[in-house]
Amino acid sequence: ELDSNTRERLRSHFQPLITSHAAYDLNIIFRKGGGLGANAFALPDGTIIFTDEMVRLAEHDQELSAVLAHEIGHVVRRHGMRSIVQDSLLGFAILAVTGDITGSSELFIGLPVLLTEMAYSREFEREADQYAMAYMQEHAIDLKHFANLMRRVEKASGVDAEDGVKKWANYLSTHPMTEERLAAFE
User: CA 124, CA 80: separation in Å to the nearest integer?
Assistant: First the structure.
């Protein structure tokens, strides 16, 4: 668990970014990641959670500011709420097509649904990247901060021998890191 001094230092460091988005009622929370490992994510209500592991991987507070700008992009673009709506619509579409209220038909059509959800996730990640990039350029934050931390996260996500494949698959399902995405920040 992060010590209180680190949490307070980061909250203070993040304050200008939070203040500039006051309309979104942002709330920063630090939590142990457990199976999530190094990660950060935004909830529809404006809560942004940084795992302690993500904070520990950062070599510079500006790297975490870059991640915060990315997560704020998700809040501003309402990605959390859009995901909920899209997932619900996909479920209703399955019901309408199959008439199966038990959900057993999802076993047969689950892959197309998963692929559709991953496409939305990739679209949302690109939008959040663009938001972060614009914010960083406007505030003279070196774009490399985001790419540097994401490369460390990418490396850390796949190194655990016991469940590395599972961790990596979980991370990629919500944060598909491609060379193209990282190159945009370099």
Answer: 9
Query: Does an H or E element contain 118, and which?
Result: helix 106-138
Question: What's the CA gap between 174 and 125, in Å, rounded?
Answer: 8
Q: Are 48 and 28 in contact (CB under 8 A)?
A: yes
SS3 31: strand
Distance CA 90, CA 84 (A): 10
Q: How many CA atoms lie within 13 A of 65 on its CB side?
A: 23
CA angle at 153 for the pair 51 and 174, rounded to the nearest 5°:
75
Which tens digit of pLDDT belongs to each residue from 152-171?
988 887 644 445 444 545 55
Residue 27's H or E segment, with its range, is: strand 27-31
Tell the burial category of 168 from Cβ atoms under 10 Å away from its Cβ (0-12, 13-18, 19+).
Answer: middle
Whether 39 contacts 53, CB under 8 Å: yes
Q: What is the DSSP letter of 49?
A: E
Does the CA dihedral 98-104-110-113 come out positive or negative?
A: positive
Query: What digits encode the pLDDT tens for the residues 24-52?
Result: 999 999 999 888 889 898 888 899 999 99
Provide the whole-model pTM. 0.72
- Find out whether 140 and 89 touch, Cβ atoms under 8 Å: no
